[in-house]
Amino acid sequence: MPLLIENHKIERTSTTAEFFAKYPLLQENAEAFRAKALVNVDPKCLLYVQQREFAATTPADNSVSVIGSDDATTCHLVLVRHTGSGAACLAHCDGSSTWSEVPLIVKAVTTLSSQTKEGRLELHLVGGFDDESNTSHSLSLSLLAAFQKQKEDIHLVTCCITELNDILTEGIHRPVVYGIGVNVKTGEVFPASFPCRGPAEELRSARTFTGGQMADIYDSSKQQVKIGPCKWSPNRDIKFWLTQDDDTILKYLSTSPLAEPPHFVPHIKTTIQFLLDHPNPDSLFQKGQPQQFRRTEQGDWERVA
Fold first, then answer.
1. Which of 3, 35, 47, 255 is the least buried, fewest Cβ under 10 Å from its Cβ?
2. How far apart are CA 19 and CA 38, in angstroms?
3. Helix, strand, coil shares of the chain as percentages rounded to 5?
């Protein structure tokens, strides 16, 4: 079934500019979303999603109130939510495998909503900007096309992507919104930043850095984060990057060097050092099992023995 706007089937377009011109309501909704206040999310209620990860849960979850992700420049943050069950899935997509990722996101929500008769699936897309390489434009069009191919009716509510998420400052294009959160209790979606990106932030970054594919990181039935097991090969050559200046790292390891947040380079260096410290990932996964984390009464994630 089609992707819908105001209950009307969306028509395919060849450019994002043509798409937004055809559907002015999306421009209005994007403007309203950009104008929302930025929320700095409390880590004690947060389930954070890194690049090439997704996570889904329902309002019944006692461990998670907000699912969130940020640091999206050319990447897009994809949220599907069922209005009846309240089930929500947030993914951080970078275009590595869009056509296989979108069905996983939709299935995560429909599975958690299988007992719900009322309600509909709603889609919120945020991210990208008017970058020189048109990476954002390509990902925007791919995501829209992939959602149009799903068998379920999906209603596009927020589409704050690419040129609708672009700001020009001192001659440089940047995203307006880098991160979003969804309150799984109320369904509210909002621009967000996150002081904490755990648990296992370095391990998860290493998985993505070494080519790991889109991964489901949360078991809502157990209310536990699960990471891995991961695979990568020892590579001492990456030590080279630790000696390089910030501009070189941005030039070669970012899709948008001028638009990255200030912590991008330190984050890359920390990830590389983690890979150098753990050349064999098998040592991180006891008996080949995932690392699992549960929420403590204090609100922290602790590893399950």
1. 35
2. 27
3. 35, 25, 40
Supply angle C-alpha 252, 256, 262, rounded to 5: 90
The number of beta carbons lying within 10 Å of the beta carbon of residue 234 is: 12
CB 103 within 8 A of CB 206: no
pLDDT-based confidence at 153, cuts 50/70/90?
Answer: very high
Distance, in Å, from the CA atom of 252 to the CA atom of 249, rounded to the nearest integer, reads 5
Q: Give mean pLDDT, residues 37-43.
A: 97
d(CA 169, CA 274): 35
Distance between start and end Cα atoms, the chain: 44
Instruction: Return the SS3 of 228.
Output: coil
Local structure of residue 38 (DSSP, 8 states): P
| Residue 251: its H or E element | helix 246-253
In this structure, are residues 40 and 193 in contact, taking their beta carbons and an 8 Å threshold? yes
Burial of residue 187 (number of CB atoms within 10 Å: 0-12, 13-18, 19+): middle
> Looking at the predicted structure, is the pLDDT value of residue 305 above 90?
no
* Residue 1 pLDDT exceeds 70: no
Kindly state the DSSP code that residue 223 receives in the 8-state scheme: T
